[in-house]
Amino acid sequence: MDFPRLAAGANLGIAFPTTIEALLSAGPDFLTPAFRATGALPRHNAVTAITGWREFFGGGMGRKLVLNVLYDRAEPHLATTLFAKFPRDFGDPLRDLFTPLMEPECRFALLSRRPDFPISVPRCYFADYCRDVPSGLLITECIPYGVAPVEPHYDKCVDYDLADPLPHYQALTRAMAGLAGAHKSGRLGADIDREFPFAPDVQKAGSAIPYTPETLAEKLAVLRCFADEAPNLFEPQLRDPMFLTAFCAEAPLVLQKEAAIRDRLNTRPDEVALCHWNMNLDNAWFWRDGIGNLQTGLLDWGSVGQMNLAQSFYGMSCAAETGFIAEHRGQLIDLFVAEYAARGGPALSASDFADQVKIATALLGIAWILDAPSLVQTELIEYRSLTGRTDPRLRGNFLARAQLQLLMVFLNDWRVGNIGALLAGLPG
């Protein structure tokens, strides 16, 4: 297949490789001027060699590479192990869907070079994007998971492995509030709203509900059948026929009230800020500071932008254990509201923000999660015999494991939050 090996970067004015193979071929001839252009590499230094590389697979947005490099002069601040991210291969049918998500991610990586950046992110060595190809390239330091003081990497939707997840979610909440507060206070610069405009219509496309009333009814029927066929995959309160009957009766309210829901989420400027939309544990790293407090850094910023902060909170909590989030959601919301104000954001009502989270949960859950039963059935044809969430067959299948847990959290949030009653009170 014929495709361009180089793309013209829109931000730094440097032509960058479009594939792993092209990057390895270009080597120091590209890396040296690229790293100098971001300020990561001093002018008196240079990359002299690529000493090793390893492609690895994780997530679905694109190809990923661990790259080892050698510099002319070793300097303490220069990482020799780097992470590189590319879009999916040319010709991949999902390339056109996922590649544009790198454009704001690259702009965010360049923004993060500010010395006063309010949160920890991987240090940017190069980031740029070309719409014409389209293509993007992101190169950062590689986070040394499991090397002291950094904790091991945590997979998505297996929080049951954590003895005490609360400090981790508190650290994530503080980071979320720190970035949003810095934006609202103006500390990220005067151009931030131009670089990351709030575009509710674009967000609507990204979270569009793909169902008519008839197809939604079909999805709900599949859910009920799935609960009957695989009861071991449901917590008792979530497979209860009374609950499922009530949920299936209330879920169509999201379609009926969609305009009011989006209006509620998108017309309150104090609750809209630059933030991470997928702040699960697997998109973070953690370490203890000098006095023993847990700190976090955040990565995987694809599609970063301004958003309703309740949606970001939902994105942070949607993969947690159902019992954990039901017990600690209120505490985490209180922490977010307090930290957001302390970091320069407007004062919010915790109770009102909690309702916003419920509304965001309803919208995003119906839009994204009701395909979970069909996905689990497709990924694991033996789903009826699974013994539960920790069954090795389920745990070893990322898509099935993640989709199932997202569904369980969504259903439990609906149940404990009385979301149906909240939606019924909205206009429309």
Alpha-beta content class: alpha+beta
Rg (C-alpha, Å): 22 Å
Biggest sheet, strands in spatial order? 3-4-5-7-6
First-last Cα distance: 51 Å
Explain how this protein is built.
The chain is of the alpha+beta class. 46% of the residues lie in helices and 14% in strands. It has helices at 20-26, 28-38, 95-98, 102-111, 166-185, 192-195, 200-206, 213-229, 236-239, 241-250, 252-256, 258-266, 309-317, 322-342, 350-368, 372-379, 392-395, 398-417, 419-424; strands spanning 6-8, 15-17, 47-56, 64-71, 81-85, 124-130, 135-141, 272-275, 284-288, 294-298, 305-308. The strands form 4 sheets. The chain has a 5-stranded antiparallel β-sheet, with helices on both faces. It has a two-stranded antiparallel ribbon with strand order 1-2. A two-stranded antiparallel ribbon has the order 8-11. Strand 3 and strand 4 form a beta hairpin. Helix 12 (258-266) crosses helix 15 (350-368), helix 13 packs across helix 15 and helix 16 (372-379) packs antiparallel against helix 18 (398-417). The N and C termini lie far apart (51 Å).
